[in-house]
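A reminder from the course coordinator: this example appears on the midterm review sheet, so study it carefully.

Given structure:
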């Protein structure tokens, strides 16, 4: 009986296939090993000794007392407010970072407080009190360890001293300005704006309106058929000269300015000084119209920058110089040169 021999090419292919399979297995093992190493490194960086574990949905307040002052964040219905100044617009992500920190706080080391040892608790960097449905927990962040950079931590009423990663403290060291969340106080988006009318300091008023105009007509035939096939675009026109073509860079700039986010807020609780901010003689007063509302905005220059006021809102908002400059054009500057 004669046996068939495998061709050399087939043997080589089988060998290569086997090597590919072995390489795949080796890669999978290496990937799993790397993941475990990364997880272990992460746990080592954050610590593995439980200090505080609070279900996030039970937290009602987080009060931070630091060298910059005391701030109390109130948490309700999934959103944050500043108890000392409810009108202040907070950065939700910064507040949520604090919530995450107290929900599962682990330490790297646990020590017993030694007599005469200074851990910085007499003049702490921050004292954080968390109010929950079941009571309060207070954390005292002391000095930084000069060698490791970690921070000493103690729970109020306990003698144990912990060391935690400095990141656990840093999220609580933000002052009021650092907790501001950028937003558009007028609630405007450029695509929703239909008309803009603004009055400059010298009394000149410029009015612009968005118009829907045909781009081109497709095909020929009856006027009704031509109308059905015409494409339209939104074009901005001067009310005083509706046939003039406007500089599109400038129209884009004014729409961006009116819908841009502010960078800071001074509330009535902060003692907003309208005269010091320049609102005795504003640079420009703007009326912005959308399908739903008309909003009046005033921009001024004073103190150390540029400011915005929205009608019906007692706060001052800081804005960029470029935002104001886009609104300071006389009517003759709108037409292309």
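Designed residues:
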């Amino acid at each position: 009986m004669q046996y068939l021999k495998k061709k050399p090419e087939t043997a080589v292919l089988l060998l290569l296939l086997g090597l590919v399979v072995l390489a795949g297995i080796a890669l999978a093992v290496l990937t799993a090993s790397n993941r475990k190493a990364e997880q272990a490194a992460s746990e080592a960086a954050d610590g593995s000794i439980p200090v505080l574990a609070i279900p996030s949905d039970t937290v009602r307040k987080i009060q931070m007392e630091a060298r910059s002052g005391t701030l109390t964040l109130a948490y309700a219905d999934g959103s944050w407010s500043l108890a000392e100044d409810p009108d202040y617009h907070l950065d939700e992500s910064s507040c949520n970072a604090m919530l995450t920190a107290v929900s599962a706080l682990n330490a790297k080391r646990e020590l017993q407080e030694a007599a005469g040892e200074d851990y910085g608790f007499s003049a702490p960097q921050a004292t954080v009190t968390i109010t929950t449905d079941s009571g309060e927990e207070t954390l005292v962040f002391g000095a930084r360890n000069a060698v490791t950079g970690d921070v000493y931590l103690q729970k109020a009423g306990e003698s144990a001293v912990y060391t935690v990663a400095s990141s656990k403290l840093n999220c609580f060291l933000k002052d009021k300005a650092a907790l501001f969340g950028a937003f558009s106080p007028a609630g405007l988006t450029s695509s929703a704006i239909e008309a803009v009318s603004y009055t400059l300091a010298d009394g000149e008023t410029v009015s612009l309106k968005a118009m829907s105009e045909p781009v081109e007509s497709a095909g020929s035939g009856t006027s009704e058929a031509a109308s059905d096939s015409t494409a339209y675009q939104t074009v901005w026109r001067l009310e005083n000269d509706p046939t003039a073509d406007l500089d599109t860079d400038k129209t884009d700039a004014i729409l961006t300015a009116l819908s841009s986010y502010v960078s800071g807020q001074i509330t009535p609780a902060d003692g907003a000084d309208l005269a010091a901010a320049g609102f005795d003689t504003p640079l420009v007063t703007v009326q912005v119209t959308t399908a739903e509302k008309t909003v009046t905005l005033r921009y001024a220059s004073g103190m150390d920058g540029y400011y915005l006021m929205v009608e019906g809102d007692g706060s001052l908002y800081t804005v960029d110089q470029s935002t104001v400059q886009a609104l300071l054009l006389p009517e003759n500057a709108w037409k292309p040169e």
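DSSP finds six helices and 18 strands in the chain. The first helix runs from residue 8 to 46.
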